[in-house]
């Protein structure tokens, strides 16, 4: 769908395709709780805001550099995880220290459990697709689209 824009903006994109929103919903939910904690809580108890901000700023540098790259590679996702995981863990700490956010967390535990299941399942699917993918620019492999590429590869692995 966006092949023309991708070809214009990027030198190359490697397989497998992916999105943090699809593979990391739990982490993003925890970051949303951190944002609520920043908005609703004037202090975080023993958690020091300046230190959290300084660490987050430092961990944001590699992802910022990756967004300027003209090449998209699956392995470049690694640059984003330290920041995402740090913010998610701080969000969980803020939830644990706030009765108001803790109650909100418990009220939405079904969605949090669902996000956990999706995160785990998406991680496994992502690793499987990474193992099935050829390295290098993906243009040569996508004549039938992403599903057209992976459907026979997965069927062959499953013996279908």
List the SSEs and their pairings.
Elements: H1 3-9, E1 12-13, H2 20-23, H3 25-40, H4 49-66, E2 71-72, H5 81-97, H6 99-107, H7 109-132, H8 145-158
Parallel strand pairs: 1-2
Please give a structural write-up.
- The chain is an all-alpha fold.
- It has one domain (3-133).
- The protein contains eight helices and two strands, in the order αβαααβαααα.
- The protein has a two-stranded parallel ribbon.
- Helix 3 packs across helix 5, helix 4 (49-66) packs antiparallel against helix 5 (81-97) and helix 5 (81-97) packs across helix 6.
- The longest helix is centred in the last third of the chain and has 24 residues, at 109-132.
- The chain is globular.
- The two termini are 29 Å apart.
- 11% of the residues are buried.
- The mean pLDDT is 86.
Low-confidence stretches: none
Order of strands across the main sheet: 1-2
Radius of gyration: 19 Å
**How many domains?**
1
**Average pLDDT over all residues:** 86
Question: Main sheet, how many strands, which sense, barrel?
Answer: 2 strands, parallel
* Beta fraction: under 5%
Helicity range: 55-70%
């Amino acid at each position: 769908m966006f092949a023309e824009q991708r070809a214009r903006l990027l030198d190359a994109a490697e397989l497998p395709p992916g999105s943090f929103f699809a593979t990391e919903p739990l982490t993003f939910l925890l970051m949303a709780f951190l944002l609520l904690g920043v908005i609703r809580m004037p202090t975080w108890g023993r958690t020091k805001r300046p230190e959290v901000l300084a660490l987050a700023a430092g961990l944001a540098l590699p992802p910022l550099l990756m967004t300027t790259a003209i090449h998209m590679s699956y392995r470049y996702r690694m640059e984003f995880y330290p920041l995402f995981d740090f913010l998610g863990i701080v969000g969980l700490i803020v939830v644990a220290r706030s009765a108001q956010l803790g109650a909100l967390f418990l009220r939405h535990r079904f969605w949090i459990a669902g996000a956990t299941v999706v995160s785990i399942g998406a991680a496994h699917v992502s690793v499987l697709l990474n193992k099935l993918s050829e390295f290098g620019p993906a243009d040569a492999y996508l004549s039938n689209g992403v599903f057209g590429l992976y459907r026979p590869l997965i069927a062959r692995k499953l013996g279908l």
